[in-house]
Amino acid sequence: MSRRPFAALALLSALAVGACSSAAGSAAGPTATPSASTGWSYTSGDGKTYTADEVPTRIIAHAYAAKALMSYGIRPIAVYADGPIDGDVGLQGVDFDGVEVLSEEWGHIDVEKAATLDPDLIVGDWWPAEKAYSGLEGGVEEASKKMATLATVVGPSQGDSIVELVEGYAELAESLGADASVVEEQRVAFDAAVSDLERATAAKPDLDVLAISPWEDTYAVAVPTYAPELLDLQRWGLRVIDPQKPDADFPYWESLSFENADTYQPDALLFDDRNYPGNRDTLARQPIASSIKAFAAGATTTWPAYWLHTYPDYTAQLQRLTEFVEQADETVGD
User: Fold this and answer.
1) Which PANTHER family does the UniProt entry name for this protein (predicted)?
2) Please, which residues have CB within 8 angstroms of residue 195's CB and are 6 or more apart in sequence?
């Protein structure tokens, strides 16, 4: 199963390193050392340092990683995605024209085609809970995992903050030759958005929200510990509810039956935006929907679930959430 549960859970019903040398490194966050004269070095999210005699240029990347690299002018030769690119909220506005698409289905990558491209680097997020990079984790088909034999696989780690992930991709891009001076301008706008959200949440100290993704016969409640964007929101003052009983086998979520969907009564619901508005419609069809006070009151919005990789995207999402918080009623769930 994918660690991005709700491109993954929507698919459930249908459902190593390579060429360069490596040495153990610090597990503290990714660092990069660009140098045209001495080759290439990058300490990846798995804590290992990868090196090459030359800076990699033939890059295959997970689509979200590709979006991040492209924001700094690093264009991959191919991408693999977890679902149809045109319908992915996290890939809106990205121009993949001329870039080979190796997959638009989680768990399946056309490794034979990838091999013909002669890549010298593969890029994706490192997922500590599963000890694997994007597209190579448990549950994908074995043939797809062979992509890791084509080239070194690197990328910053998913951790307890999306900010660290964003910064990790900026560092990786710089190691690959990008001029990342634009990052400072992006960071200024982002910092301003964070400050605005903090002011809004400080003015609504009793506002409780619940991050959810209803699907099929399950009312799934997100566990912030495994959703760094939700941890960021908590850090900036938004009271995102921590569910009491995360699933033992996949603790990203607490899976409730719809009969128990009113277990939590927040002041607002945040729907996983990757399946929105379909997941909202799924909940609306359930008889219990009227017993969930926030849903009955129309106190709903979305949260950017597992796809944020750039400052501009994060800034836009924080600005939208700030407007929602400013208008929210802290008494809905009482």
Assistant:
1) FERRIC ENTEROBACTIN-BINDING PERIPLASMIC PROTEIN FEPB, IRON III DICITRATE-BINDING PERIPLASMIC PROTEIN
2) none
Q: Which residues of the chain have pLDDT under 50?
A: 1-36
Asked if domains 5-178 and 185-327 share a fold, the reply is yes
d(CA 274, CA 277): 9
In this prediction, residue 233 carries a pLDDT of 98
63 and 95 Cβ atoms separated by less than 8 Å: no
Percent of the chain with pLDDT over 70: 89
Residue 210 half-sphere exposure, CB side, CA atoms within 13 Å? 26
Q: Are 125 and 157 in contact (CB under 8 A)?
A: yes
What region, left, alpha or beta, does residue 257 occupy, with left being phi > 0 and alpha being psi -120 to 50 degrees? Answer: beta
Spatial distance between the Cα atoms of 123 and 62, rounded to a whole number of angstroms: 6
| Rounded-to-integer distance, Cα 323 and Cα 249, Å | 36
How far apart CA 205 and CA 249 sit, in angstroms, is 33
Q: What is the CATH number of domain 5-178?
A: 3.40.50.1980
Region 185-327: CATH code: 3.40.50.1980
Listed by start position, the domains of the chain span 5-178, 185-327
Q: What is the dihedral of CA 248, 7, 265, 209, to 10 degrees?
A: 110
What are 221's two structure tokens? 């409640």
